[in-house]
Amino acid sequence: MAERTNQQVYPLAPSNGNPRSDEESNTLQSKELKRKKRVKLAIYIAAFAVFQTIVILVFALTVMRVRTPKVRLGTDVTFSKLNTGNETSPSFDITFIAQVRVKNTNFGPYKYDSTTAFFKYQDEQVGQVTIPKGKAGLRSTKKVSVTVGVNLNALQTTSSNLGNDLKKEVLTLNGQAKFTGKVELMFVMKKKKATEMNCTMIIYLPSKTLKDLICK
């Protein structure tokens, strides 16, 4: 019993035969932490690159995309003069005030040149008006008021429908114009854009009002 009590106990050595110090353990832990930080940094950089690519694509497809402006007549037409003949002696002499609306959906202004709008009864030109040059701001609508005079009588027209239209108390006029100009983006990019106005007005003669307006 005395011999077993006096035996000395020694600590077990590592499996590789070399004891690992606290300094080596700290070094390994430090290297592992640095590796994890590098992995996280690489993930953040990759995510930022993907996000930046998406932003650039969205910017190119929306902001930098040049769309064709639209030109229409407004529905708020005021007739200052409306004289008509009858079925046997058909004619009309009309003056009205209308709004030409230039709608620009681009992220930059649309500057257009002066142009002329022509008004027709069927295929015959009955009036015209000059639309001065102007600018429709970014994502806005430019409204231009114009005074238009149109007239026609039986001696001027080759159409036999004017008398019938006056009998029905409706008159159909068509307004057309072509606009040319440039869209400016970011103050450096300019792109030429042409657009057309093509609107049909249906006038109800007894009340001197616009019954319908159809624009293509």
TrEMBL record:
InterPro entries: Lea14-like_2 (IPR055301), LEA_2 (IPR004864). Keywords: Membrane, Transmembrane, Transmembrane helix. This is Late embryogenesis abundant protein LEA-2 subgroup domain-containing protein. The chain crosses the membrane at residues 41-64. Residues 1-30 are annotated as: Disordered. Residues 100-197 form the Late embryogenesis abundant protein LEA-2 subgroup domain. Residues 1-19 have a biased composition (Polar residues). It comes from Lithocarpus litseifolius.
